[in-house]
Amino acid sequence: MVQAPIRSQTITPFENQLNQPLQKQPISVLQINLGKRCNLACSHCHVEAGPKRTEEIDPEVWQDLVTLIEQFPQLKTIDLTGGAPEMHAGFKPLVDAARRTHKEVIVRSNLTIYFVPGYEDLPEYFAANQLRIVASLPCYLADNVDKMRGNGVFDESIRALQWLNQLGYGRNPELILDLVYNPPMPMSEDEFRLPPAQAGLEAAYKAHLGDQFDIAFNHLLTITNLPIGRTKQFLERRHLRQAYTKFLEENFNRATVEGVMCRNQLSVDYLGNIYDCDFNQMEGVAAQSGAGDPLTVRHLLQAGSLDLIEQIQTRDYCYGCTAGCGSSCGGALIED
Question: Is the pTM above the cut of 0.85?
Answer without folding.
Answer: yes
